[in-house]
From TrEMBL:
UniProt entry tagged with the keyword Nucleotide-binding: yes
UniProt xrefs under CDD domains: ABC_BcrA_bacitracin_resist (cd03268)
Annotated family: Belongs to the ABC transporter superfamily.
Protein known as: ABC-2 type transport system ATP-binding protein
Keywords, alphabetical: ATP-binding, Nucleotide-binding, Transport
Amino acid sequence: MTYIARTIGVTKTYAGAEVVSNVNMSIKQGEIYGFLGPNGAGKTTMMKMLTNLVKPTVGEIELFGEKLTPTSYELLKRMGSIIEYPFFYDNLSAKENLDLHCEYMGFHNKKVINDMMESVGLKDTGKKPVRDFSLGMKQRLGIARALITTPELLILDEPINGLDPVGIKEMRDLFKRLSSQYRITLLISSHILGEIEQVADTVGVIRNGRLVEEVSMDSIRGSHSEYIELQTLDPRKATYVMEHQLGLKNYKMIDDHTVRIYDPGIAPSELTGKLIGHGVEIESIFKRAHSLEEHFMSLMKGDGDVA
Ligand SMILES: Nc1ncnc2c1ncn2[C@@H]1O[C@H](COP(=O)(O)OP(=O)(O)OP(=O)(O)O)[C@@H](O)[C@H]1O
């Protein structure tokens, strides 16, 4: 597995208080990594450590397979980031802002500016000053600026914050395009599951400074499918019938009255028929989906199964 960025036991302490605790994050080359957590969980602090703006108190960071040190300028050149709100010259156009940035960075391939404006959908903004841009346009201009040096890894802190639904959709499409067309690895933070869920290949959930889960969206979709929830006064008899009459093995006793059946091939009506036929009294039976939302919300709030 090729990791573009890894953190190894990273902890950050401010005035004796741990705001990030022993975080092991692994970001794979080419993926969109969604970094999910409530406000104050430690997302920005982690991103600042990954970009060398803040030094970990304990632990190590690896970028592109090499250890990050205070003088890793070559490694930092291979990444782009927007961590704090991007500053622009409000009276100048998008292109003029990008021109200035190139000069400031000593980057002379200005041809790339038009390409980048096109890739973020700002090609037709002409002389319009940035002052008259929507928040979404400013965010996309920030991304264009971060892309000018053609980074391999792009780190964006809450890029969707404050955008309207159209802006959110444009941003989501942009992330997908950057990933598929330009093969850029993206690390995107958010406190809103819906934003992350739709774009991320891997999700890392942080709460109170701890990474409580890091999982691929594919695997989590597979493991959080539908189940049947059965309530009965006689769960022992019910599970006996389930096992011996229907061959069901993938079930779980939730409490004295409740059984959850995860076997995919059984319909509630079939199960009901068999149970009643064998004298099992059913209080209720229904099909449920343990949604991704329930799963992640319980992790973020801290009432889930924490790793
Ligand atoms: N320079 C600092 N000095 C002291 N405490 C800090 C500093 N920077 C961050 N913190 C604290 O660290 C904790 C994590 O903050 P951080 O900004 O990383 O969280 P976050 O997940 O990005 O949340 P948000 O989305 O609200 O920015 C917070 O309690 C914050 O007050």
